[in-house]
Amino acid sequence: MIQREIAPVLAPLSEPALLPYRTLTLDNGVEVVYIHDSSQEGFKLDAVFEAGASYQSRPLVASTAINMLNEGTRFHTAEEIADVFDFYGAYTDYNSGFNKSELSLIALTKYARETVSMLAEMLTDSIVPEKELEIFLTNKRQEFLVDNEKTSYLARKKFSEVFFGSTHPYSNAVTEQDYLQVTPGMVREFYRRYIHARRCRVMLCGNVGGQALEAVAECFGRLRRPDGEFWRGPQPFAPAPVGRYHVEKGNTVQSSLRIGKSGVRLGEEDYAGFMLLNAVLGGYFGSRLMSNIREDKGYTYGISSFNVSMPQGSYWCIATDVHNEYVGETIEEVFKEIRRLKEEPVGEEELMLVKNYLHGDLLRELDGVFAQSDALKHKLNYHTDNRIYLDLIRRIKDCTAEDLLRLAGRYWDTEEMYVVTAGKG
């Protein structure tokens, strides 16, 4: 009989069971990284290109190029492409970031050849039809106008602008006019320059031992590999002076707040300890910022802090939405909690709680073959693999309260922090 009044016995958290991965380089240079799991009925494919916003000649071109891939090829219309994936029960997704763009496919392994060949055709024979491009840009322009009424969007945009510099691709400085100035020629030229074998890595996972891997090798082996290189290298950051910045948005009840500075990049010596320090401050629901500003003061429904690592740098940020009248008090309470972490050691019970939370969170990132492939896709950008999780868990476990004091003193000088608000001033 189950004793519901007796708590289950606590057991130490385990280490993640890492699945082995293999690599295959096709004749045209496409790198295929795959993890096989025969217990799955399907597979996931991510075709990743060095073709993000950092490579575009003007705003929106990179994201438009990747999202137009399913709008028509030399052999199939947009409707016909959609019908193929629908018939085989497949799912596709399109994403474009600062450095990379990717096209994803989830399908049953028994239909690997049919779905992968359609995906590859979108990459080799896209035509970017003008009518579909106009519809896409019109819809995206409308989304932009809606977002531009949100204080959270305005604060995020302003923080990126002052931290990276208004002309840097990472700042994502898009205006309404940009949606009217993208032409089919711009998108086709970007597609020609950057969507090809020289800049492609394929991540493949699931039941890929036979049909899926063979289909990928055959179809992606047809991607062209140009001789030339068009990218001129990374653009340096040009940050604005550290200080307080406000974006006025009248007739709003709430204001959005961003406080941040440079962070710690994945692979740096202090990365694991900084993860732990950030979690204590604002990295989980029971964090100090949540306990103080939500639970005690009632200024907000939620507040969080996070560290973002990118190939060209990193940043750390606190984000929240608060009632207009509590903006000043919230900023003071945030700085108060930062000062506490710089002056007072974290208690043993709290430290153990946050360590266990982070350990469990890292285990969740590796829960299953699809999660492990997603994690590996990210880690390969930093010339490492999922074995870094073992090192992170060990370092977090060994981190002491004194280590956190040292890290807070090193990285959290409030005089170096940008404070950005958006709302009614």
**Gap from first CA to last CA:** 62 Å
Poorly predicted ranges: none
SS-derived structural category? alpha+beta
The strand line-up of the biggest sheet is 1-2-6-3-5-4
| Percent range of helical residues | 40-55%
Q: Any chance you could write out the topology, listing elements then pairs?
A:
Elements: E1 22-25, E2 31-36, E3 42-49, H1 61-67, H2 78-87, E4 91-96, E5 101-108, H3 112-124, H4 130-147, H5 151-164, H6 176-181, H7 184-194, E6 200-206, H8 211-220, E7 244-248, E8 254-262, H9 271-282, H10 288-296, E9 303-310, E10 313-323, H11 327-343, H12 348-364, H13 369-379, H14 388-398, H15 401-411, E11 418-423
Parallel strand pairs: 2-6, 7-11
Antiparallel strand pairs: 1-2, 3-5, 3-6, 4-5, 8-10, 8-11, 9-10
Which keywords apply here?
single chain; 425 residues; 5-stranded mixed sheet
Written description of the protein model:
It is a single chain. This protein is of the alpha+beta class and 425 residues long. Helix content is 42%, strand content 18%. The protein has helices spanning 61-67, 78-87, 112-124, 130-147, 151-164, 176-181, 184-194, 211-220, 271-282, 288-296, 327-343, 348-364, 369-379, 388-398, 401-411, and strands spanning 22-25, 31-36, 42-49, 91-96, 101-108, 200-206, 244-248, 254-262, 303-310, 313-323, 418-423. Strands 1-2-6-3-5-4 form a six-stranded mixed sheet, sandwiched between helices. Strands 7-11-8-10-9 form a five-stranded mixed sheet, with helices on both faces. Strand 4 (91-96) and strand 5 form a beta hairpin. Helix 9 packs across helix 14 and helix 9 (271-282) packs across helix 15 (401-411). The radius of gyration is 24 Å and the shape is globular.
